Amino acid sequence: MATETLHKPIGHLSAKMLAMLGKVGPVVILALPFLALILAAFGVFDPQSGHASSSYLAGRELVLANWWFNTLLSGFVAMLVAIILGTSMAWLLQHYSFPGHGLAAFLAVMPLAVPPYLASYTLNGFLDINGPLSRLIAALGIDDNFRLALSGPLVLGLVLGCQLYPYIYLSLVPALSGNLAGPLAASRTLGKRGLGLLLSPGLALLRPFIASGAALVLMESLNEYGAAAFLGVPTVTAGLLRAWNHAFDLSAAIQLGLGLASFAVLVTILERFLRRKQRFGQAKGNRPPIIEARKLTGGKALLVTLVTFAPIFFGLGLPLIQLAWWGLRFDQLSPLLTLNGALNTLILSAGTGLIALVLALAGVLLPRLERAKQHLHGIGTAISSFLADAAYGIPGVIGALAVLSLAGLSGLSVSAFTSGFGLLIYALLVRYYAVGHNSLHANFKHRVVAHEAPALLLGASRFRIVWSIDLPLLRPAAIAASLMLMLDISKELSATLLLRPLGFETLATLLYEQSSQELPHLNALPGFALIGVSVVIILLTRLSRLRTWRKGHKEPTNE
Amino acid sequence: MNSTNPISIGSLLASQEKSPALEVLGLSKNYGTKKALDSLSFEVKSCEIVALVGESGSGKSTALQIIAGLQEADSGQVRIQGRTVFDESISVDPALRHVGMVFQDTALFPHLTVEDNILFGMSKQEKNRKGYAKSLLELFSLPDLGKRYPHELSGGQQQRIGIARALAAKPRVLLMDEPFSSLDRSRKRELLPELRRILKQSCTSSLVVSHDEEEALALADRIIVIHQGGKVSDGIPEDLYRQPRLVPVAEYFGMINLIPLRKCEQCPEGWQIETHLGQTVLPKASWTSQGLPKYLGLRAESLAVSDQVAAAGGHACRLLEQRFALPHSLAVVCVDDAHPAHRILYAQSDAKMASTKLVVQADLSQGILLGE
After folding, report:
1. Cβ–Cβ gap A8/B154 under 8 Å
2. What's the rounded Cα separation, in Å, for the pair A496 and A501?
3. Contact between chains at B101 and A457 (C-beta distance less than 8 A)
4. Where does residue B90 rank: exposed (0-12), middle (13-18), buried (19+ CB within 10 A)?
5. Chain A partners within 8 Å of B169 (Cβ)
6. Who contacts A464 (Cβ-Cβ below 8 Å, separation ≥6)?
7. In angstroms, what separates the C-alpha of A13 from chain B's closest C-alpha?
8. Which residues of A touch B93 (CB under 8 A)?
9. Mean pLDDT for each 10-residue chunk of chain A (559 residues)?
10. What ipTM goes with this model?
């Protein structure tokens, strides 16, 4: 069929090349480090010691099993807690109105501003003998020496769940007010209400959205190093860091890393499988019915208020209280050190976020320069979005490790202390590319691509379409995506810890260092600063979402 | 005849000018095993407005997409002003076909003002572009909306801007895909004559896809009916309404009783026909196609009903339902118990039926001979 294609005269060949670049570039950038990692694991090249078998892990099968047990147990508990908290928050806030509803809806995602390692420091600080709880009990004359020191995989899971439930919440809220509003309204007219509505058909409808949120929670749990170390839980990630940073056994680290990476790939596949039906649920342009929130009063209202505020208290309130407690009762780190850390955090997150965003934009938009209809479902896009998803689940340390393997392969120095910004940024990029890519790609498919045909028929060239239609329409999503990237990178600990140049401190590394030296009470300033930065980013994200909604994407009104 | 005579070149140019705005030749398209288009051919002459109608799934939107270049046909040819834009060996980029398109959902660019939307497709060489945009807005009686954003407009205003935007690019042929399907009836009745006037004034050759017979009748010079991907009828609206010849065409223009023909023979006066409602002779001109007709089509207004059993000479029938319906004051549905195979009849009446026992009198001379 149609063997000849007439294009606008400008840059037929260059358009093809740019399109190819957009399709292949992200795949190569994401896949290279992992390829290097796999090669390293099979001893194809030799970064350090001459052979790929590890001495660190030799004869420690039981230890390894224990690490995996802790990793899986804490990850599972985190997922369970996050699903329960996130689903109940989203469901209650969407369907009921009660005292404090507005505040709860405003604060619901804020626990994301508190990274799990900081939450674990403040939790144990709160229960410590010098903490507010112990002092209160002493002041009441009940027990002068009350103290609790929580540890273990269950506590780790609980802390992770309390901080990460917003991933579930954020995945459910748009679904509940969008595609699922119709079926849920229909179920109500068929006589379902309250808990019955949630159990059936609620959970069945929510399942794909819960699954994608839960996958994120699990991936973040796998990645957590700071909280696991502080709560004394030897996970695979913690073991990996120890093998590398303390035992200097790179091949052991690579072996562990490949194990974790395979697990992340498995989770990605599982998540995609659970989510496969989600696309059938895309309502096309129809306005979803507005289900008015039911007003609750009396005991029910009190109960629902308590249920919705409890996660907010544990995820945000308690850390803030404890930081304030430390700040008021103990000497603190110099504000200059904190300021320096805050600036470094901002520069690193904004810089890396920007690079990731540009890369994601190129990945989404460059293929549009070529004339074809299959891009959105093309194999290149599929591979790069799968790789991005899997990479997102792979702990930052492994990203770092992979990038180092690549550096080793290309003959660069493999010393963790001289790696500099380049490798750090690359590792963060590999890990967080998914955040930018997925949200841009989804937004493009649902909001933007439909405007290409009219522009094309008005005679616009492919370059002009990308420049003056796609790019501006994608702008609100791009701003939101870059903010999300900034949020994640600001909180990132493990890769930053390993790859930062000597003397480069971010807020995350400052917090980690005080705590690992048993001085968590010095954390008030950097803690507040990190939460402050994150809250500002979350608020900006919300603002940019609001703008998206206001400008242009509203349904037409009738005359 | 390779003369270099300037006159003959002139006449050649003139004949090219006169070549149809759009020619579609033998377009076929399959989606897997499903036939979307089956060797569809038609043309739109210069300055002509043609409506492409048919039930949903008949392939009319697919045809539009292929003409615009947003989809490719499996085989066939598309020519715009005599220039081939699609065949086995060529597929011109949609951006270069000079086809204007008006979309069902307006598809205005949400990030551009109304004025910038209209300017988007306008040639950069055009002098006084803003002035032209303004005059287009005035033409559509929306002079003050230039600085607004699409979401600030009503559905009807958006749709008019969508058409203005397509016209601003001076398309060689304008394609419209159910342009008013999202508007309510009164808004539609207001807009249709306005649009026809503008298209005719600007001599814009247009092809409009519609499943709404009111839209097609109000806009088009000519109507093409497609059924299962192929053209079944092509003619001016009045002819199609009066002599649809085929069941899908007749049904497109509204409810029709299909009375099976028991007998149909040519006789000196015309066509001798017999149905269970009676027999008559229809003039020769009422069937000129190949083969024999299968049905006598009777519109509701050709059936008179009465609840006076005494009114003899009619056909006994039991009332099933009567309701108020436009354009008739009463639509009556009754069951012909004597002929269970084709027993439901739709008739019209001015008076409410008092009894369920009715007598139907069919004016068979009003009947239309139909093939399948």
Report:
1. no
2. 9
3. yes
4. middle
5. 458-459
6. A455
7. 15
8. 5-8, 371, 456
9. 40 76 80 77 56 62 90 96 96 91 93 95 92 89 86 95 94 84 80 81 86 88 90 90 77 82 84 67 55 84 94 96 92 87 94 90 86 54 70 67 69 52 84 81 84 89 90 88 89 85 89 88 92 92 63 36
10. 0.77
